[in-house]
Amino acid sequence: MQQTEKIDPLFVAVQSEMITRADVAGLIAGRLAAVRVPGLLSAARCHAITAALAAAPMDRYDESRVFPLVAKFGPAINDHRDAGELREDYWDAARAAEKSWVSLGLSDVPRELCLAAFRAAWPDVEPGRRQRQVMHVGIVREINDGLQMHFDDAVREYAGQLLDANVVAQLAFNIYIRVPPTGGETVLWRRRWQPDDEDLRIPGGYGYRESAAAGIQSLTLRPTLGEGFLFDPRNYHTVRPATDGRRISIGCFVGLTDDGRLALWS
């Protein structure tokens, strides 16, 4: 008798007109895999931002650790982490990015785009703070050649508390401001890191071989222009290469703190 593959009926992506409190709670509780908000930004706003970014001083993630290459605008906390601590040069990179963004002459500010997506759902939302300093919110990333399969979990990655507040759950949020006509899908697996996975870590990299999630239930979701996308990054995830065109997003992490606030950082 042939066995039927068992699946988790809760590991699904839902579509909403806007991010709601139930969406955030559902992701944190594990009742959802992802929340998609089509048209969170209009096509006109997306085009205006990407046009202005053509003149922006784009950087890259640390090429000794992140490969294939990923271009970015603004600091990524994991490029400023040593031995589980956030280095002081993070703040210099944050100030430089905010100054450069102002020079683009756009009314849209990455921090406000991210915060605005959550205000109706969770009025008590603000940038995270570390040693009373306000964290950068809203990194622009151009991921054309894909990512290694990985997870993001500040509790595991930082020896102490990353933020002044105690983060008890973490989500990831992206707004897609340019999407390729083909490729560029996000893949989510219903699996979190386990100690034995370290045997499958990619040498020199930040990620893991996909065999760590072999046979595990997954979702493959292709982004649409202007879409907001929210998921739990503690589950393994990756981005497939764009086979044609560019894939650009504005994103941040979202932490639920033990006093019931949402704190954002990048």
Jot down its keywords.
Jelly Rolls, 10-stranded mixed sheet, 266 residues, alpha+beta, 3-stranded antiparallel sheet
Query: Strand share of the residues?
Result: 25-35%
Which CATH class?
A: Mainly Beta
Query: Remind me, CATH topology?
Result: Jelly Rolls
- Order of helix and strand elements from N to C terminus: EHEHEEEEHHEEEEHEEEEEEEEE
Q: What Rg is obtained from the alpha carbons, in whole angstroms?
A: 18 Å
Total number of β-strand segments? 19
What characterizes the major β-sheet?
10 strands, mixed
Please give the alpha-carbon distance between the first and last residues: 50 Å
Give the overall form: globular
Instruction: Please identify the structural class as seen in this structure.
Output: alpha+beta
Helix content estimate = 10-25%
- Average pLDDT score: 96
CATH architectural grouping: Sandwich
Helix count, DSSP H or I runs of 4 or more residues: 5
Low-pLDDT regions = none
Task: Tell me the domain tally.
Answer: 1
